[in-house]
Amino acid sequence: MKKLLLIVVVAALALTLVPLAVAGGPGGGWKHGHAKFNLVGKVVAVTPADTTVPEAPVAATLTVKVKAGSHIKGLRGTETAFTVADGAKVWQLTKDGKVGSSLDQLAAGDKVMVKGKISKAEDGSKVYTITSIKYRDRTPTPPPVE
User: Fold this and answer.
1) How far apart are CA 71 and CA 48, in angstroms?
2) Within 13 Å of residue 115, how many CA atoms lie on the same side as its CB?
3) Which of 79, 81, 127, 143 is the most exposed place for a label (fewest CB within 10 A)?
4) Residue 145 domain-assigned?
């Protein structure tokens, strides 16, 4: 009787854990087709969106020298161009707190903290889309004219 009970318990555990292992289990990052990523780095270039041709609009991009982050395997130390989502939140961090800003205020050399989502392209590659940017303005200010 004890052997039968043990077999039933092991079978029940196997039926519960195998689907989780196949699906990636908790913490795998993929949920509803999207994973989230975070990174910090320094702005290399900002390209504004081009909507002059309505049939083929071009999304804004932000090129970042990636320093660190999560779910960005292989991107550390590289200069990577990320697509910026329409309506992405942009915040400037100041000594008084964070202030709403816009993408055109970013400049090369600014330090950024980026959040976004990862989706898969048709060819199986990862597509990183930025949804939120926080930055510190590191562009030098000219000295006051006397």
Assistant:
1) 25
2) 8
3) 143
4) no
Over residues 70-76, the mean pLDDT reads: 85
Q: Report the CATH number at residue 107.
A: 2.40.50.320
What percent of the chain stands above pLDDT 90? Answer: 29
pLDDT at 126 over 60: yes
Q: Which amino acid is at 85?
A: A
Nearest to 41, CA basis, from 57, 62, 71, 14: 62
pLDDT tier at 102, thresholds 50, 70, 90 = confident
Residue 59 identity (one-letter amino acid) = A
Q: Provide the token pair at 33.
A: 């087709």
Q: With contact defined as beta carbons under 8 Å apart, do 135 and 113 qualify?
A: yes
Same structural domain, 72 and 132: yes
